[in-house]
Protein backbone atom coordinates (compact mmCIF):
# COMPACT_ATOMS: atom_id res chain seq x y z
CA UNK A 1 0.00 0.00 0.00
CA UNK A 2 1.41 3.40 -0.98
CA UNK A 3 1.68 5.96 1.81
CA UNK A 4 -0.26 9.17 1.01
CA UNK A 5 2.20 11.38 2.86
CA UNK A 6 5.05 9.99 0.81
CA UNK A 7 3.09 10.50 -2.39
CA UNK A 8 2.70 14.15 -1.39
CA UNK A 9 6.48 14.44 -1.00
CA UNK A 10 6.96 12.97 -4.47
CA UNK A 11 4.42 15.40 -5.89
CA UNK A 12 6.26 18.31 -4.25
CA UNK A 13 9.58 17.08 -5.65
CA UNK A 14 8.06 17.07 -9.13
CA UNK A 15 7.13 20.75 -8.72
CA UNK A 16 10.06 22.05 -6.66
CA UNK A 17 12.80 20.01 -8.39
CA UNK A 18 15.13 19.58 -5.38
CA UNK A 19 14.91 17.68 -2.11
CA UNK A 20 16.17 20.76 -0.26
CA UNK A 21 13.30 22.86 -1.62
CA UNK A 22 10.75 20.21 -0.63
CA UNK A 23 12.21 20.02 2.87
CA UNK A 24 12.12 23.79 3.26
CA UNK A 25 8.52 24.08 2.05
CA UNK A 26 7.14 21.27 4.21
CA UNK A 27 9.35 21.84 7.30
CA UNK A 28 11.21 18.54 7.00
CA UNK A 29 14.95 17.96 7.01
CA UNK A 30 16.45 16.99 3.66
CA UNK A 31 17.52 13.65 5.09
CA UNK A 32 13.96 12.95 6.27
CA UNK A 33 12.61 13.70 2.78
CA UNK A 34 15.20 11.38 1.23
CA UNK A 35 14.33 8.60 3.68
CA UNK A 36 10.61 8.92 2.97
CA UNK A 37 11.15 8.88 -0.79
CA UNK A 38 13.39 5.81 -0.48
CA UNK A 39 10.60 4.12 1.51
CA UNK A 40 8.13 5.07 -1.23
CA UNK A 41 10.40 3.43 -3.81
CA UNK A 42 10.31 0.22 -1.76
CA UNK A 43 6.51 0.41 -1.59
CA UNK A 44 6.25 1.03 -5.33
CA UNK A 45 8.69 -1.75 -6.21
CA UNK A 46 10.23 0.26 -9.05
CA UNK A 47 12.88 3.02 -9.19
CA UNK A 48 11.33 6.47 -8.77
CA UNK A 49 14.44 8.64 -8.57
CA UNK A 50 17.60 8.82 -10.62
CA UNK A 51 20.41 10.15 -8.44
CA UNK A 52 23.41 11.92 -9.95
CA UNK A 53 25.66 13.32 -7.27
CA UNK A 54 23.48 15.63 -5.18
CA UNK A 55 20.76 16.05 -7.81
CA UNK A 56 17.77 13.81 -8.43
CA UNK A 57 15.37 13.47 -11.33
CA UNK A 58 12.08 11.59 -11.48
CA UNK A 59 11.85 8.44 -13.57
CA UNK A 60 8.98 7.93 -16.05
CA UNK A 61 7.32 5.68 -13.46
CA UNK A 62 7.59 8.44 -10.87
CA UNK A 63 6.06 11.01 -13.20
CA UNK A 64 3.12 8.69 -13.82
CA UNK A 65 2.77 8.15 -10.09
CA UNK A 66 2.69 11.92 -9.56
CA UNK A 67 -0.33 12.09 -11.88
CA UNK A 68 -2.08 9.47 -9.75
CA UNK A 69 -1.03 11.34 -6.60
CA UNK A 70 -2.76 14.49 -7.83
CA UNK A 71 -5.99 12.52 -8.23
CA UNK A 72 -5.66 10.77 -4.87
CA UNK A 73 -4.97 14.02 -2.99
CA UNK A 74 -7.93 15.72 -4.69
CA UNK A 75 -10.26 12.86 -3.69
CA UNK A 76 -9.10 13.12 -0.08
CA UNK A 77 -9.73 16.88 -0.13
CA UNK A 78 -13.23 16.25 -1.47
CA UNK A 79 -13.93 13.74 1.30
CA UNK A 80 -12.73 16.24 3.91
CA UNK A 81 -14.98 18.94 2.40
CA UNK A 82 -18.02 16.66 2.55
CA UNK A 83 -17.39 15.84 6.21
CA UNK A 84 -16.97 19.53 7.03
CA UNK A 85 -20.31 20.29 5.39
CA UNK A 86 -22.06 18.38 8.17
CA UNK A 87 -21.00 20.96 10.76
CA UNK A 88 -23.54 23.57 11.78
CA UNK A 89 -21.06 26.46 12.13
CA UNK A 90 -17.78 27.37 10.50
CA UNK A 91 -14.79 27.00 12.83
CA UNK A 92 -11.09 26.65 12.26
CA UNK A 93 -8.73 28.77 10.20
CA UNK A 94 -8.89 30.28 6.73
CA UNK A 95 -5.53 31.16 5.20
CA UNK A 96 -5.71 33.64 2.32
CA UNK A 97 -2.79 34.65 0.10
CA UNK A 98 -3.00 37.85 -1.94
CA UNK A 99 -0.89 40.51 -3.62
CA UNK A 100 -0.68 43.93 -1.86
CA UNK A 101 -3.15 46.00 -3.91
CA UNK A 102 -5.78 43.25 -3.65
CA UNK A 103 -5.33 43.09 0.12
CA UNK A 104 -6.28 46.79 0.31
CA UNK A 105 -9.21 46.75 -2.08
CA UNK A 106 -10.67 43.22 -2.26
CA UNK A 107 -9.46 41.08 0.62
CA UNK A 108 -10.06 43.63 3.41
CA UNK A 109 -13.80 44.07 2.68
CA UNK A 110 -14.10 40.29 2.32
CA UNK A 111 -12.54 39.86 5.77
CA UNK A 112 -15.12 42.23 7.26
CA UNK A 113 -17.95 40.16 5.79
CA UNK A 114 -16.41 36.85 6.86
CA UNK A 115 -15.83 38.09 10.42
CA UNK A 116 -19.44 39.26 10.61
CA UNK A 117 -21.01 36.11 9.18
CA UNK A 118 -18.63 33.54 10.72
CA UNK A 119 -17.29 34.94 14.02
CA UNK A 120 -15.65 31.64 15.04
CA UNK A 121 -13.53 31.53 11.91
CA UNK A 122 -9.88 32.49 12.36
CA UNK A 123 -8.77 34.58 9.39
CA UNK A 124 -5.11 34.63 8.38
CA UNK A 125 -3.81 36.74 5.48
CA UNK A 126 -0.40 36.39 3.84
CA UNK A 127 0.83 39.03 1.41
CA UNK A 128 2.81 37.41 -1.39
CA UNK A 129 3.56 37.62 -5.08
CA UNK A 130 1.07 35.59 -7.13
CA UNK A 131 3.96 33.61 -8.61
CA UNK A 132 4.56 32.08 -5.17
CA UNK A 133 0.90 31.26 -4.46
CA UNK A 134 0.55 27.89 -6.28
CA UNK A 135 3.42 26.35 -4.35
CA UNK A 136 2.01 27.66 -1.06
CA UNK A 137 -1.40 26.16 -1.87
CA UNK A 138 0.08 22.76 -2.69
CA UNK A 139 2.19 22.89 0.50
CA UNK A 140 -1.07 23.57 2.41
CA UNK A 141 0.20 26.79 3.96
CA UNK A 142 -2.68 28.59 2.18
CA UNK A 143 -6.30 27.56 1.62
CA UNK A 144 -7.17 30.07 -1.10
CA UNK A 145 -5.08 32.57 -3.03
CA UNK A 146 -5.28 35.22 -5.74
CA UNK A 147 -3.37 34.50 -8.93
CA UNK A 148 -2.65 36.91 -11.77
CA UNK A 149 -2.13 36.77 -15.48
CA UNK A 150 -1.53 39.48 -18.06
CA UNK A 151 -2.22 39.54 -21.77
CA UNK A 152 1.51 39.08 -22.34
CA UNK A 153 2.06 36.71 -19.38
CA UNK A 154 -0.63 34.00 -19.43
CA UNK A 155 -1.24 31.84 -16.37
CA UNK A 156 0.42 28.46 -16.71
CA UNK A 157 -1.64 25.35 -15.87
CA UNK A 158 -1.19 24.43 -12.20
CA UNK A 159 -1.62 20.68 -11.51
CA UNK A 160 -3.59 19.97 -8.36
CA UNK A 161 -5.29 23.37 -8.29
CA UNK A 162 -8.64 24.71 -9.45
CA UNK A 163 -9.04 28.35 -10.47
CA UNK A 164 -11.92 30.68 -11.32
CA UNK A 165 -12.11 34.29 -12.62
CA UNK A 166 -12.40 37.03 -9.98
CA UNK A 167 -11.91 40.38 -11.77
CA UNK A 168 -10.14 42.10 -14.66
CA UNK A 169 -8.26 45.42 -14.85
CA UNK A 170 -6.94 47.75 -17.51
CA UNK A 171 -3.19 48.47 -17.55
CA UNK A 172 -2.17 52.16 -17.65
CA UNK A 173 0.99 53.81 -18.90
CA UNK A 174 2.12 56.27 -16.20
CA UNK A 175 4.18 59.19 -17.55
CA UNK A 176 4.79 62.91 -17.08
CA UNK A 177 4.39 63.59 -20.79
CA UNK A 178 1.44 61.87 -22.51
CA UNK A 179 2.31 59.57 -25.38
CA UNK A 180 1.88 56.04 -26.70
CA UNK A 181 3.82 53.10 -25.32
CA UNK A 182 5.95 52.80 -28.46
CA UNK A 183 7.22 56.37 -27.88
CA UNK A 184 8.78 55.46 -24.51
CA UNK A 185 11.71 53.47 -25.88
CA UNK A 186 14.30 56.10 -24.87
CA UNK A 187 12.85 56.66 -21.37
CA UNK A 188 14.11 55.03 -18.20
CA UNK A 189 11.61 52.55 -16.78
CA UNK A 190 10.33 51.57 -13.36
CA UNK A 191 9.33 47.91 -12.97
CA UNK A 192 8.76 45.26 -10.33
CA UNK A 193 11.47 43.09 -8.83
CA UNK A 194 12.93 40.65 -11.39
CA UNK A 195 11.10 37.35 -11.13
CA UNK A 196 7.73 38.92 -10.40
CA UNK A 197 4.83 38.90 -12.84
CA UNK A 198 4.75 42.71 -12.92
CA UNK A 199 8.38 42.82 -14.04
CA UNK A 200 7.77 40.18 -16.72
CA UNK A 201 4.65 42.01 -17.92
CA UNK A 202 6.58 45.28 -18.32
CA UNK A 203 9.36 43.61 -20.32
CA UNK A 204 6.99 41.69 -22.61
CA UNK A 205 4.65 44.63 -23.21
CA UNK A 206 7.59 46.79 -24.25
CA UNK A 207 8.99 44.05 -26.48
CA UNK A 208 5.57 43.82 -28.15
CA UNK A 209 5.78 47.59 -28.74
CA UNK A 210 9.13 47.14 -30.47
CA UNK A 211 11.78 47.91 -27.84
CA UNK A 212 13.53 46.54 -24.75
CA UNK A 213 12.88 48.71 -21.68
CA UNK A 214 15.87 50.26 -19.91
CA UNK A 215 14.81 49.56 -16.32
CA UNK A 216 16.37 51.99 -13.86
CA UNK A 217 14.33 51.36 -10.72
CA UNK A 218 12.68 48.27 -9.22
CA UNK A 219 9.67 48.69 -6.94
CA UNK A 220 6.79 46.36 -6.13
CA UNK A 221 4.50 48.88 -4.42
CA UNK A 222 2.54 50.83 -7.04
CA UNK A 223 2.35 53.87 -4.78
CA UNK A 224 6.15 53.93 -4.82
CA UNK A 225 6.16 53.36 -8.58
CA UNK A 226 3.86 56.35 -9.17
CA UNK A 227 5.89 58.51 -6.79
CA UNK A 228 9.02 57.71 -8.82
CA UNK A 229 7.18 58.59 -12.03
CA UNK A 230 6.08 61.87 -10.44
CA UNK A 231 9.69 62.60 -9.47
CA UNK A 232 10.74 62.28 -13.10
CA UNK A 233 12.59 59.01 -12.60
CA UNK A 234 10.97 57.13 -15.43
CA UNK A 235 7.75 55.70 -16.82
CA UNK A 236 5.84 52.61 -15.72
CA UNK A 237 2.90 50.29 -16.34
CA UNK A 238 0.33 50.27 -13.54
CA UNK A 239 -2.96 48.30 -13.27
CA UNK A 240 -6.26 49.81 -12.10
CA UNK A 241 -5.85 48.70 -8.49
CA UNK A 242 -2.51 50.49 -8.33
CA UNK A 243 -3.81 53.94 -9.32
CA UNK A 244 -6.00 54.74 -6.32
CA UNK A 245 -3.83 57.78 -5.57
CA UNK A 246 -1.99 59.50 -8.42
CA UNK A 247 0.66 62.19 -7.76
CA UNK A 248 0.19 65.59 -9.31
CA UNK A 249 1.59 65.81 -12.81
CA UNK A 250 1.40 62.09 -13.55
CA UNK A 251 -0.64 61.19 -16.63
CA UNK A 252 -2.32 57.82 -17.00
CA UNK A 253 -2.96 56.44 -20.48
CA UNK A 254 -5.17 53.34 -20.65
CA UNK A 255 -3.65 50.63 -22.83
CA UNK A 256 -5.39 47.78 -24.68
CA UNK A 257 -3.74 45.45 -22.18
CA UNK A 258 -5.36 43.76 -19.19
CA UNK A 259 -4.52 42.02 -15.95
CA UNK A 260 -6.84 39.24 -14.81
CA UNK A 261 -7.05 37.94 -11.26
CA UNK A 262 -8.26 34.43 -10.49
CA UNK A 263 -9.07 32.61 -7.26
CA UNK A 264 -7.12 29.40 -6.73
CA UNK A 265 -7.51 26.56 -4.25
CA UNK A 266 -6.49 22.92 -4.03
CA UNK A 267 -8.50 20.60 -6.23
CA UNK A 268 -11.30 19.05 -4.20
CA UNK A 269 -11.54 21.90 -1.67
CA UNK A 270 -13.83 24.24 -3.61
CA UNK A 271 -16.95 22.90 -1.88
CA UNK A 272 -15.39 22.91 1.59
CA UNK A 273 -17.60 25.26 3.65
CA UNK A 274 -14.68 27.46 4.68
CA UNK A 275 -13.28 27.77 1.16
CA UNK A 276 -16.78 28.25 -0.27
CA UNK A 277 -17.42 31.09 2.22
CA UNK A 278 -14.14 32.72 1.22
CA UNK A 279 -14.97 32.41 -2.47
CA UNK A 280 -18.38 34.03 -1.95
CA UNK A 281 -16.97 36.88 0.15
CA UNK A 282 -14.15 37.63 -2.30
CA UNK A 283 -16.51 37.60 -5.29
CA UNK A 284 -18.88 39.97 -3.46
CA UNK A 285 -16.02 42.33 -2.61
CA UNK A 286 -14.79 42.29 -6.22
CA UNK A 287 -18.31 43.02 -7.48
CA UNK A 288 -18.71 45.91 -5.03
CA UNK A 289 -15.33 47.31 -6.02
CA UNK A 290 -16.23 47.16 -9.72
CA UNK A 291 -19.55 48.91 -9.04
CA UNK A 292 -17.83 51.61 -7.01
CA UNK A 293 -15.14 52.11 -9.63
UniProtKB/TrEMBL annotation:
Gene3D superfamilies: Periplasmic binding protein-like II, Winged helix-like DNA-binding domain superfamily/Winged helix DNA-binding domain. InterPro entries: LysR_HTH_N (IPR000847), LysR_subst-bd (IPR005119), WH-like_DNA-bd_sf (IPR036388), WH_DNA-bd_sf (IPR036390). GO terms for molecular function: DNA binding; DNA-binding transcription factor activity. GO terms for cellular component: protein-DNA complex. The keyword Transcription regulation applies. The keyword Transcription applies. Pfam families: HTH_1, LysR_substrate. Keywords: Activator, DNA-binding, Transcription, Transcription regulation. Residues 2-59 form the HTH lysR-type domain. PROSITE patterns: HTH_LYSR. Belongs to the LysR transcriptional regulatory family. This is LysR family transcriptional regulator. It comes from Nocardia terrae. The lineage of its organism: Bacteria, Bacillati, Actinomycetota, Actinomycetes, Mycobacteriales.
Amino acid sequence: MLDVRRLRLLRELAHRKTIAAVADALTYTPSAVSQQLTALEREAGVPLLERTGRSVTLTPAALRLVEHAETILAVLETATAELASARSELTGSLRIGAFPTAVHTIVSPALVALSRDHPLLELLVTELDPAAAPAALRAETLDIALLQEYDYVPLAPEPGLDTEPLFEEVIHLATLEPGPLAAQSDCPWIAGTPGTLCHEMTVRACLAAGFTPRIRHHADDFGTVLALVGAGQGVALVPDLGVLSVPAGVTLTALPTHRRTRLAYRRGTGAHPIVAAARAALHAAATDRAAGA
